[in-house]
């Protein structure tokens, strides 16, 4: 991977917008190599080259109605039928053929008569008001010319894109696959079953983050399961990271992003030869988040252990990283109108949980970094820039939670 400027351990937290852009550019430099997929297996991938037509669209003149293809002056002698999939000959003067929607229009057809406007009697077709020439015909190349670019490189592959590729005659398309993701849960104080108590907190991120990563555009590694809680030792952290990086392009971890007595993520990254892309971000909640690059164009995203802070890190760092690795456009934020005031967080960007109601965004209660009640009801985060407060009626940035 080409070298770029990275934040260093101990440096000041990086501005939130700059952290998103820096992470995206790191992913873009390491974007996944193209592969050729059968079109039916490409959903969720990203076009690695522009999608172009193999023929004009349509490739032949096509009827857009059920009716009759005619030539010359009417009434027309009915001489046959043309169905979709057939290849008709040419029409003679004074004749008509019954034609189905989607069927190839016979050569020398002058116009189409809709079935509801036609009268058939004694083997002849007649009509009171003759339409203009070739009405209701989809002409060759009406939608696109041969070799025309339909969608650019970097466009997400959706069911609609798959259908378009099929209509062009493609069996295979060149795509960048979805980045493979794994999840490690740090903190052996976490309980993984039953109610919390006796000093143990129930792990909420292990069950929820895999789905969120999938909605964000990642592909779970084969046999993917959240691993953890990982023992609070450096050896266990290094071993778990090394194993996860064998299979994944991106490994997300939860907890351990600070420098406490049982926070082993930073020492583990150092032992694995990682370099920081981003190390802490000036955002509240969730500032002790990080992205580290490892040999082989692999990445570790350190999410804070508090649930809401972890989701802030997903929208702040994981989404841009996945977009870069996929070769997609930078995931820009949108705007919303605030329905109520939102306090700022001093020199930090404030990502405030909001619910969209009508055309306005309203802040939610129960929005502490360790709380999930507000998060479960939220559509996303309103973005309050450093040094500012949000006022009712103001337009502010908005980033949606993957769902």
Automatic annotation (TrEMBL):
GO molecular function, one term: molybdopterin molybdotransferase activity
Swiss-Prot/TrEMBL cofactor(s): Mg(2+)
Keyword flag Mitochondrion: no
One Pfam family matching this protein: MoCF_biosynth
InterPro entries, per database record: MoaB/Mog-like_dom_sf, MoaB/Mog_dom, MoeA-like, MoeA_C_domain_IV, MoeA_C_domain_IV_sf, MoeA_linker/N, MoeA_linker/N_sf
This protein's pathway: Cofactor biosynthesis; molybdopterin biosynthesis
GO biological process, one term: Mo-molybdopterin cofactor biosynthetic process
Catalysed reactions, as listed in the record: adenylyl-molybdopterin + molybdate = Mo-molybdopterin + AMP + H(+)
Catalytic class of the enzyme: transferase
SUPFAM superfamilies found in the cross-reference section: MoeA C-terminal domain-like, MoeA N-terminal region -like, Molybdenum cofactor biosynthesis proteins
EC number from the UniProt entry: 2.10.1.1
Domain MoaB/Mog: 182-324
Alphabetically ordered keywords of this record: Magnesium, Metal-binding, Molybdenum, Molybdenum cofactor biosynthesis, Transferase
GO cellular component entries: cytosol
Job description of the protein: Catalyzes the insertion of molybdate into adenylated molybdopterin with the concomitant release of AMP.
UniProt xrefs under PANTHER family: GEPHYRIN (PTHR10192:SF5), MOLYBDOPTERIN BIOSYNTHESIS PROTEIN (PTHR10192)
Recorded family membership: Belongs to the MoeA family.
Protein name: Molybdopterin molybdenumtransferase
UniProt organism field: Phytomonospora endophytica
């Amino acid at each position: 991977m080409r070298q770029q400027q990275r934040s260093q351990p101990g440096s000041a937290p990086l501005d939130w917008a700059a952290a998103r852009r820096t992470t995206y550019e790191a992913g873009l430099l390491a974007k996944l190599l193209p592969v050729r997929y059968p079109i039916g297996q490409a959903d969720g991938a990203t076009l690695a080259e522009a999608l172009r037509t193999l023929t004009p669209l349509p490739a032949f003149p096509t009827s857009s109605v059920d009716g009759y293809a005619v030539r010359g002056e009417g009434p027309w002698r009915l001489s046959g039928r043309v169905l979709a999939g057939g290849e008709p000959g040419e029409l003679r003067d004074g004749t008509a053929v019954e034609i189905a929607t989607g069927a190839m229009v016979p050569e020398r057809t002058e116009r189409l008569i809709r079935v509801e406007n036609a009268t058939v009697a004694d083997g002849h077709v007649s009509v009171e008001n003759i339409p203009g020439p070739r009405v209701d015909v989809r002409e060759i190349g009406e939608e696109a010319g041969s070799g025309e670019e339909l969608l650019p490189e970097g466009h997400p592959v959706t069911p609609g894109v798959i259908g378009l590729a099929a209509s062009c005659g493609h069996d295979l398309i060149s795509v960048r696959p979805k980045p493979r993701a794994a999840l490690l849960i740090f903190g052996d104080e976490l309980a993984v079953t039953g109610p919390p108590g006796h000093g143990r907190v129930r792990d909420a991120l292990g069950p929820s983050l895999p789905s969120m990563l999938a909605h964000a555009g990642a592909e779970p590694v084969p046999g993917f399961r959240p691993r953890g809680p990982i023992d609070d030792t450096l050896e266990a952290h290094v071993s778990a990271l090394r194993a996860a990086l064998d299979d994944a392009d991106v490994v997300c971890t939860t907890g351990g992003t600070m420098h406490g007595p049982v926070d082993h993520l930073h020492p583990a990254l150092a032992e694995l030869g990682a370099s920081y892309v981003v190390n802490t971000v000036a955002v509240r909640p969730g500032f002790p988040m990080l992205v580290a690059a490892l040999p082989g164009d692999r990445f570790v995203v350190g999410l804070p252990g508090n649930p809401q802070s972890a989701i802030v890190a997903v929208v702040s760092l994981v989404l841009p990283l996945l977009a870069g690795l996929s070769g997609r456009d930078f995931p820009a934020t949108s705007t919303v109108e605030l329905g109520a005031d939102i306090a700022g967080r001093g020199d930090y960007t404030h990502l405030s949980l909001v619910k969209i109601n009508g055309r306005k965004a309203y802040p939610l209660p129960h929005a502490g970094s360790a709380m999930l009640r507000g998060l479960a009801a939220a559509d996303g985060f309103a973005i309050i820039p450093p040094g500012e407060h949000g006022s009712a009626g103001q337009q502010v940035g908005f980033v949606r939670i993957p769902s």
